[in-house]
Amino acid sequence: MAAVTTIKASDYKTEVAAAFDRAAGTYDRLGVEFFGPMGRRLVERVAPAPGHRVLDVGCGSGACLFPAAARVGPAGRVVGIDIAPGMVETARAEAARRGVGNVEARVMDGERVDFPAASFDVVIGSYSLIFLPDVRGALRRYAQVLVPGGRIGFTSPQFRTGTFPFLPPVFTELIPNDLLRSLPEQWRPEALQRRFNSWLEGPADLRATMEAAGFVDADVHDEAVPLVAATGEVWVDWSHTHGMRLMWDHLTADDAAALRARLIKALDEMRDGAGPLVIDTPVRFVTAQTPPVR
């Protein structure tokens, strides 16, 4: 059996931070609706109250940051952290543009949160926590920075054996493995499935992970979030502005061009005439809390 090549956590974080820095100027700004609706739904499910202190891990440009800020009101505060300086600057600029005064954005590694114990009432992370190399260790740290009875909520794709990781099931047939031959082994679908499906596919495994990190009452809720793009080309351009950029960056020019053409054609064929592309995207919402004071 061939040895499996792994990526060092430091190299992985550097690569992820660089990819999101390059994408910061266009991140979630190309007219595709997905991260915003998903972030608002996550905030609804974790339900921060007026006056609460909220930590948003991997805040990006603010899909959760600003809905949370609206809920906690002027007496509350929302701190967004991101490993990519470009994303933090984007969030700061958006807060200034909106005139939101109860939001702060900092450059910080989500695995090494630098806050005193019991600093927050709520921790959230939309499509972010799952990417941390030591996610189990990070979850234990989030339990420590939460107050007793504090809540955590995060989203992830619904990982299913045999489907292309991170994307709706329709993409399993649209992205053939022969076009991914230039990817480093750690970024190929089978390697991603080994890494993520092992704890995110089964609700029982997820609940066990949360309990081991110090949480109770873990709830796993699956629902579809509509992804809406004007055209297949718009979707493909948008896919370069988030985590999928890591795949595009590793493809050869010829393979990237072939995949781009294939996806645009197939996605446009899914549209209803001149209407937009709409894909119901399976999303998993996970919530839990720290044990309350007895």
Short description:
With 294 residues, the chain is of the alpha/beta class. The chain contains 11 helices and 7 strands. A 7-stranded mixed beta sheet has the order 3-2-1-4-5-7-6.
What do these coordinates show?
The structure is a single chain. The protein has helices spanning 9-23, 35-46, 65-72, 85-98, 135-145, 171-174, 189-200, 203-212, 232-239, 245-250, 253-269; strands spanning 53-57, 77-82, 103-107, 120-126, 146-157, 216-229, 277-289. Residues 1-7 and 19-27 have low confidence and may be disordered. It is built from 11 helices and 7 strands. Strand 4, helix 5 (135-145) and strand 5 form a beta-alpha-beta unit. With 294 residues, it is an alpha/beta fold. Helix 9 (232-239) packs across helix 11. 40% of the residues lie in helices and 21% in strands. The chain has a 7-stranded mixed beta sheet with strand order 3-2-1-4-5-7-6.
Helix content: 25-40%
Note the total helix count. Answer: 11
Biggest sheet: strand arrangement? 3-2-1-4-5-7-6
Q: How is the biggest beta sheet arranged?
A: 7 strands, mixed
Q: Work out the strand percent.
A: 15-25%
- Roughly how many Å apart are the termini? 52 Å
Give the CA-based shape: globular
Q: Give the averaged pLDDT, no decimals.
A: 88
Order of helices and strands: HHEHEHEEHEHHHEHHHE
Task: Indicate the radius of gyration in whole angstroms.
Answer: 19 Å
Task: Please count the beta strands (DSSP E, at least 2 residues each).
Answer: 7
Low-confidence stretches: 1-7, 19-27
Question: What structural class results from the helix and strand content?
Answer: alpha/beta
